[in-house]
Structures are given as structure tokens and as C-alpha cells.
Amino acid sequence: MANLLKSSTIVSFWTMMSRFLGLARDVVLAHIIGAEGRSDVFLVAQKIPNFLRRLFAEGAFATAFVPVFSEYYEKRSKTETLQLLSKVSGTLGGFLFIVTIIGVLGSQGLMAIFGFGFYVNDPDKFYHASELLKITFPYIFFISLVAMYSAVLNTLNKFAIPAFAPILLNVSIIGMAIWGVPYFSDSTYALAWGIFIAGVLQLLLFIPYLWKYGYLVKPQWAWKDSAVRRIMKLMLPVIFGASVSQINLLIDTQIATLLDEGSISWLYYSDRMLEFPLGIFGIAIATVLLPTLSKYFAKEDMQHFSGTLDWGLRMVLMIGIPAAIGLLWLAEPIMITVFQHGAFDAHDSFKAGQSLQAYSLGLIAFMMVKVFLTGFYSRQDPKTPVKIGIISVVSNIVLNLALFKPFGHVGLAVATSISAFINAILLYRYLHKHDHLQISKSTAIWILKLVIASGLLLAGLWYFDFSIDQWQAWTRIEAIGMIVATIGATIAAYGLLLVLMGVRPKDFRLAR
Q: Domain total for the chain?
């Protein structure tokens, strides 16, 4: 348990650093391109490779590759494990190269699908977005290989470098925004090249560490190899099941291209703020759970398997419940403080704050889904999440179509949150029914304490609340000081409340 908590802390730390740099990147983007036409165009061109990254790399490939690689690592010789890595890296790399060429040459076709509103209503935006996509699309090639090598190092319990790698994306985009923009007639092209450069840098980062640990192998094309076929067979359904939330967010973006100018940007910036607690804690916990659960399953140790999932649920709820309350109550003040300057104005803060409130309603569900899915993929069962994911995506589409006209971009965010809860509830029911996740008595008491502490926290936020006019009237330094003080005070108060209710270090231990 100590190693699991230590690994989670390492991943959380570097993920937090990445999120802070990501925040700095988004502040720079908001300042340069705001939340208007050019911003919408760039964000769509950026979202396509990022969606494919989460779909194929972090979503499907990682969750299909880790259980098989862990099995080889635990039960086979190192020579056999290296042969597997060689064949998988060669096959994946060859496939990705072909996909990248198709994506670059067919950028207009892809944009007609993902940017449907541009294609129908605005030919200039459509052409602009298609040209940007030619630059950003190769990112999927580099980052998918990075995802594979991250899975290797995670299996070796080397979590720091995979968690550090995303920082390079933020550094690259910020660097191009500061030093590259003057060399381009349109700043969005400089930002697009920042994404391309980041992919190269992230891949190069892993080479010396793979060499150090003895896992730098020569890629080998082996499409017909049984182990490769096994991973591909696992991967196909995972493409859908592991990325339901991303598919839902992409559907939001597609429909948002039909809404008012700025809708894509408002959804983007609100989603980025949601990524703080989700990425720092939800994804971090899931990252360390997957190889750990895979090892327990390989050893047929189901007691520790269920206990580890139970522990993961406790950890994400500890952060998810108060984080959801904080984002719901402070949504617009956060947008004013963080993004409102340059091309991003008060109207954008109001609109983005609305969608952040809507997304925050589903934060707990987003986090739980990350944990529950590891219970399926560690057992090499990708089919069940697909069946459940279909229900979630269909629900999201129906809700989107029902809500986007009367409520605009906020309706899209609400639909995504509701569908996330549908997904989480169905995943939990299956795990519980088949005895893969039994919530312990200590966890039930833990959740009750979290709810009480969070309720008292909400009462405190309500009592000390400031009006939006006051937030607008403060200088930027004053607003930053107030938001930092408010968040810091709520974290301290929440921690104190938990201590007063009897939460102790033993509560962080794995239930037996």
C-alpha cells in the first residue's frame, strides 16, 4: 500500500506541475486569441489529434497493452518481454505512420466531420482549420509511441518520467506563443507548430530512460504475431469503452460549431479548469491502479484486487466531492481571475463560468469512471465497458439534441455530466454484482465523513461569498490574491473538518 500511495503521489505531483503549466499555456492562449473565431478554429484543430491521442494512445492502447505486458513481465523471461515490446512498437509505429499520412492528406475530410458547423456555415474557418490540422495531426504519431513507452515504465514502477512528459507540450506551446508568433502572419500557425514540436520532444525524452532500464528495443513489424493480435483484439473495443467521456466531449464540440461564435472556446476553457482535479487526482490514481490491478489479477489475488479498487474509490472521492463544490461555487470568479485579460473579456468569463458549473456537476462521475474502468481492463475485459459506454454516448447525444437549442453551450456541458453519471453507475453495478468491487464498511463511513465535511465547506463558501461585481472591480493582483486565499482556506478548513471527524492516516491504508 505504501508503494501504491507513493506512486500516486509522484504521478499527482508531476501531473499537478503539468496542469499548472497547462493553465499558464491557456492563459497565454486566452490573451492572444481570446474566445472568438480564430480561437474556435485553433481549438478544433488541436482537439482532433488530442482526441485521437486519448482514444488510441492513452485510452485504448495503454489499457490493452498494460495487462498483457504486465503478464509477460511477471511470468515470462526478460527476453520474451523484450521481444513483445519490439513487435508491438514496430507494428504500432508502422500503423501510426500510415494513419498520420492519411490524416495530413485528408485534413479537409476530417475537418468536415469534426468541424461540421464550419463546413456548413463558414468556408473560411473550414479552410483555416484544415490547414492547421495538417500541422497538428502528426502529434498522434509521436504521442502514441510515448503512451506505449509510458506504459512500459509504469509497469516497471517508474512513474516520474511518464508523468513529467506532458509538461513538454505546455512548454512548447508557450515557447511558440512568446517567441514564434512574430514569425507568422497568423498566430494560430505558430501555436500549431508548438504542438508538433512537443510531440518530437516527448518521444525523445524516453529514449535515454528506456536505454537505462534495458527496454530500448529495435522495432519489428509483426502484425501476425499472436501476442500483438491479442493486444489489438483487446484494443478495438477499448477504443470505445475507455474513451466515452472524450467521445462525449467531442460530440459537444461538433454541435458547438453550430452555435454562437465562442461556444467552442467557452467549453474548452471550462473543461481545462475541470482537468485540474480530474488530471491531478482522478487520472493519477487510475494510472497507478492499472498495472497494480493487472499484477493482482495475474496472480489470481482477488482479495487485494477488490481492496485496491475500493482504495482507489476512496481516494478520488476525497478530492472529487469538495473540488466539485468549489468549482460550482467559484466558476465565474475563477474565469475572471485566470483568463479575463487581453482578448478574453467579461462576457467570455460569464459564458465559460456557466459551462464550468455544468461540467463540475459531473466531476465526481468522471473521476469514478477512471477508477472503475481499471477494474475491467486489468482483467482484460474490454467488452463490458463498450456495452455500457454505448448507453452513455447515446444518452449524451439525445440530451445534447434536446438541450443545445434552448440552453446553448451550457446544455452541452450538462448533457456530458449526466451521461458521465450514467456511465459510472452502470460500471459500478457490474463490478459490484460480480464481486470485483465490494465497498468496505470503512469506505462507507469515509464517504459519509466526506459528505458532511463538504456540506460544511459549501456553507462556508456561501457565507463568505463576494458578488461578481466585486470580482470584476478588483485589480488582477487583488483577484489572484483572493482566489488563492479562498482556495487555500477551503482546503485547510476541509482538512481540519476531516481530522475533527476522526480521519487518520490509517484511513488511507488498503482495506483488508
A: 1
